[in-house]
Amino acid sequence: MKRTLFDDEHEMFRDSARTFIGRELTKNFEQWEHAGIIDKTVFTKAGAAGILGVAVPEQFGGGGLSDFRFNAIFLEEVCRAGVMNAGLGISNHADVVVPYIIKYGTPEQQQRWLPGLASGELVGAIAMTEPNTGSDLAAISSSAIRDGDSYVLTGNKVFISNGINADIVIVVCRTGFEGPAQRNLSLLVVEADSAGFSRGRNLDKVGQHSADTAELFFDNVVLPADNLLGEEGRGFYQLMTMLPQERLSIAVMALAHARAAFDETLTYCKTRHAFGQPIGSFQNSRFQLATMRTELDVAQAFVDAQLTAHLTGELTGEESAQAKWWCTDLNSRVLHTCVQLHGAYGYMEECAVGRAWRDGRAMAIYGGTNEIMKDIIGRRMLGV
């Protein structure tokens, strides 16, 4: 079906994104996959290409366009090019970190950090997950104690995207201990040169190899009170406000990633022969291909509707949870079928579909597991 979501300006940006991806990501992708991290200079190149700071106000070096459709285009194009893993860090920076500074940063904080974030001279990360919390944000134990004009931050985080490359990290921590945990969380910005801040391993993941994911440690890190992002004790509510966009970005990527694998598989079914005929000519193959295409098209209409709702400020947390769950679950089903249709070739490391199957699995986990997404949807429906 023809999509009506994008206008000429968006398509011009798509062309620019394709050029950037081909010039800077595709040619180095295999090297980064083996290294387990992309070259940090990619961020400054992405900044120069206008990819990082689309929503950043013009006075801070950005495009001044509060339109998430541009971000969605980049996600679609890295998946189409088969280099999703190299784009994950860029997405985390531009789709997740930058919006927090735009929405909650004071004018002084915005002047301090947004120009570098827009240019790529600063790489951003957000640190929520801890070894014993997972999706349970209210159980976070990292704490920041107010001491005069400073906070003293102690704790550790794990599974942090961009953790190795990051220059600034938005840290979710506990700043109070009385009453409900949700009222005691705050966001503090930690700069990488802060005394007491250190990085652990670049974690050895099953997939998404070139997207660095790290352990972070905070050993009595003294931070100026000016590094508090938003209001003290409002961190949980800030996260709940911003997570819908993060989950929508995961849905966009999961869907584009699955469609790229489907396109690859469709071509394979037309050209691969068995028993003297293309494997796509067998009824089972046709049924499988028809099912995947239909489900992808239905999901695309849903996600495009959500992108439109997000543009007008009407996207709810419940709706973004639906998109995140459905599209990542669909990704798993489509990739499973694509590998099966490829047979033994689909299980080879050299096969793009096999690698996509491996890389896509994490989408149902990060950004809140799909079980958490279903719980959010159910609670909102029942009012509990």
TrEMBL record:
A GO term for molecular function: acyl-CoA dehydrogenase activity
Coiled coil: none
Family matches, as InterPro entries: Acyl-CoA_dehydrogenase, Acyl-CoA_Oxase/DH_mid-dom, Acyl-CoA_Oxase/DH_mid-dom_sf, AcylCo_DH-like_C, AcylCo_DH/oxidase_C, AcylCoA_DH/ox_N, AcylCoA_DH/ox_N_sf, AcylCoA_DH/oxidase_NM_dom_sf
Acyl-CoA oxidase/dehydrogenase middle domain location: 125-221
Family to which this protein belongs: Belongs to the acyl-CoA dehydrogenase family.
Pathway, per record: Siderophore biosynthesis; mycobactin biosynthesis
Cofactor (UniProt): FAD
GO annotation, biological process: fatty acid beta-oxidation using acyl-CoA dehydrogenase
UniProt-recorded name of the protein: Acyl-[acyl-carrier-protein] dehydrogenase MbtN
Pfam families to which the protein is assigned, alphabetical: Acyl-CoA_dh_1, Acyl-CoA_dh_M, Acyl-CoA_dh_N
Swiss-Prot/TrEMBL catalytic activity: a 2,3-saturated acyl-CoA + A = a 2,3-dehydroacyl-CoA + AH2
